[in-house]
Design brief:
The chain is built from 10 helices and 13 strands. The chain is globular and about 65 Å long. The protein is of the alpha/beta class and about 300 residues long. Helix 3 packs across helix 4 and helix 8 packs across helix 10. Helix content is about 30%, strand content about 25%.
Length: about 300
């Protein structure tokens, strides 16, 4: 099986216990307004373009008619781009960068196993995205092969997938890093493009299957930093039997520059990093309602 991978991040220490290698897959069924990995939304390779790095050498135009120059200014017909990456190969300044590479499960596992000596104290492989369930056959094969190789496996998921896929991957995942974005279903659809009924159903299904789960909770000022949502996180952690931790993920604007390089609008252009005092207050509010450990991711 092949899949489109946009990053394999070594020495990752925030995507599960220990030192890990995180495999980031392209394709996501949600469109979260605050997404910090907008390059993961589409399941196909696509181009980053940074005009600040462009020196007008026109090497890209020499290999692709979708690039043109008028008075030394670069123009890019993104809508007709096929994502072949030939222009990026010729761009010596790095103004053009192809995001997304087709890899087999064996190729990915080969990269992950290079650092096996560092996977001590619970470290291992984390599969993330995007949403790994979007390229399900590949994900299942990769999980099976990684488990056969003796790796500890985490999977980050938004939970928006057919329940049978949840059942299929559960035996091969040691810890699910499950996104809990919004308690209210109407607001969930407003913020992410989908309601949360299927997501919550799959979260409860994992709990029934006995899967260890960490609730990953992005908190965005002015969107979901409401007391009722914070209380909802605590209530869910208390309801489920196999939630081992709640991770609060304070908003950061690192997705803004990526959106600019992808030629798409960013929903919160004026919003900066969440204040430390605000994050501490969110954590305290959630912790007040649950016995499960709550901490900042």
């Amino acid at each position: 099986m092949n899949a489109t991978i946009f990053n394999i991040q070594r020495f990752s220490i925030q995507d599960g216990p220990g030192i890990r290698t995180t495999v980031f897959m392209k394709g996501c069924p949600l469109r979260c307004k605050w997404c910090h990995n907008p390059e993961s939304n589409r399941a196909v390779p696509e181009l980053f373009y940074d005009p600040d790095k462009c020196v007008g050498c026109q090497s890209c135009a020499a290999v692709c008619e979708r690039h043109s120059f008028d008075g030394g200014l670069h123009a890019f017909d993104r809508d007709s781009c096929r994502g072949c990456g030939k222009c990026a190969e010729r761009c010596y300044t790095g103004a053009l960068e192809l995001c997304g590479k087709t890899m087999s499960a064996d190729e990915v596992l080969h990269e992950v196993m290079k650092d096996i000596d560092f996977y001590t104290d619970g470290g291992g492989m984390t599969v993330s995205g995007g949403e790994p369930m979007m390229q399900f056959d590949f994900t299942l094969e990769l999980l099976q092969k990684a488990k056969a190789a003796g790796l500890h496996i985490c999977m980050e998921t938004c939970g928006y997938a057919p329940p049978e896929r949840i059942r299929a991957v559960a035996p091969y995942v040691d810890i699910f890093l499950f996104d809990y974005k919004e308690t209210d279903p109407v607001r969930h659809q407003e913020f992410t493009g989908v309601t949360n009924e299927l997501i919550l159903s799959n979260l409860r299904l994992l709990d029934e299957l006995g899967a260890a789960t960490v609730l990953r909770c992005p908190i965005i000022p002015g969107c979901n930093d409401r007391p009722d949502h914070l209380a909802g996180i605590a209530a869910m952690a208390e309801e489920l039997r196999h939630v081992i931790e709640v991770n609060v993920e304070p908003y950061h604007p690192l997705g803004k520059s990526k959106c600019e390089r992808l030629g798409i609008d960013y929903a919160f252009p004026e919003l900066g990093f969440a204040e430390a005092d605000a994050a501490a207050a969110w954590i305290a509010a959630i912790q007040a309602g649950t016995s499960v450990t709550v901490k900042q991711a």
